[in-house]
Automatic annotation (TrEMBL):
Species per Swiss-Prot/TrEMBL record: Pseudoalteromonas ruthenica
Protein name (record): LysR family transcriptional regulator
Pfam family name, one: HTH_1
Database matches in InterPro entries: LysR_HTH_N, LysR_subst-bd, WH-like_DNA-bd_sf, WH_DNA-bd_sf
Domain HTH lysR-type: 4-61
Length: 295
């Protein structure tokens, strides 16, 4: 591949960010045809297609989206350097786009973003989606990071993603204080009902393994794949629940629920997934430094 022409790359960056060739040409004070020619020269030098035509609109190709991510890093850093050289200060606020799995514990999310609330130079947005939508958001560079309690499946283990374990929470049996069972599971649990996560979840797999070990058949009253709903069921149903205590920490503090016992070697894991990129936003790198795995 030929040496990258940063002048052409800058023109591509402006067109991609504005989404309009005519407007970009006006702001750059060049003719539309000249701008189009220079972007084509960039495509030829890189041997890829950056834009596709959809009617009168230019739409980024998949490779165009990836090139745009690098261009964002390059030119945002350049603008930050210019600001520093001229003013002796860092550029204004950074913004982080955080995607969260729509079934993830809200208490965990709150704990993760708490350092950002005290950071005057960082703003952030939270977007809840299903896993597929979150990964697409990373591909399209709509999101900087994804928070999930699901590990990336083997089908997704490729050079697109970087997954890091943020923390793990020990699972516990929780329920109403008035019916607390002091003996170790399964002794004393013969007549109880349960609210549990849906099948094919890490928590449910751990609970199923525990039941199989003791040949215990649980009487499941309800199951849910959403931690917010599971929290409500644990609080209001009178049944026992299996979940990380962090999910119901407010109810435990208020005495509505209590922890009966921890489950040995059973955890829910929390992950941060990012796209494989050369640069990471400074605010995100600093945030990761403040998050430690809970042993």
């Amino acid at each position: 591949m030929n040496r990258l022409n940063y002048h052409h790359l800058y023109y591509f960056w402006r067109v991609a960010r504005l989404g309009n060739l005519t407007q970009a040409a006006q702001e750059l004070h060049v003719s539309q045809s000249a701008l189009s020619v220079q972007i084509k020269q960039l495509e030829q030098s890189m041997a890829i297609k950056l834009f596709a035509r959809q009617g009168r609109n230019l739409v980024l190709t998949d490779m165009g989206k990836r090139v745009l991510a690098y261009a964002d890093d390059i030119f945002n850093k350049g603008e930050e350097l210019s600001s520093f050289l001229l003013k002796g200060v860092q550029q204004e606020k950074q913004h982080l786009s955080i995607g969260v799995l729509n079934t993830l514990s809200r208490n965990f999310i709150e704990g993760f973003i708490t350092p950002l609330l005290n950071h005057q130079d960082v703003s952030f947005s939270l977007t809840a989606r299903r896993m597929e939508g979150l990964l697409n958001g990373l591909i399209d560079h709509e999101l900087d990071v994804v928070l999930t309690n699901r590990a990336i499946s083997p089908n997704h283990q490729d050079d697109l993603w970087q997954s890091r374990l943020l923390s793990r929470q020990a699972l516990a049996i929780v329920g109403p204080p008035s019916t607390k069972i002091d003996s170790d599971f399964p002794l004393g649990y013969e007549q109880v009902q349960w609210v549990v996560p849906s099948e094919n979840s890490e928590i449910r797999d751990s609970f199923n393994a525990l039941c199989a070990r003791w040949q215990y058949k649980p009487d499941i009253k309800a199951q849910a794949n959403d931690m917010a709903m599971l929290r409500l069921l644990a609080r209001d149903s009178g049944a026992l629940a299996v979940l990380p205590p962090v999910v119901v920490k407010d109810e435990i503090e208020q005495g509505i629920l209590c922890q009966y016992q921890s489950l040995t070697d059973a955890y829910e894991h929390f992950y941060a997934i990012t796209a494989q990129r050369k640069f990471m936003p400074d605010a995100l790198a600093q945030l990761f430094e403040q998050v430690a795995v809970i042993p």
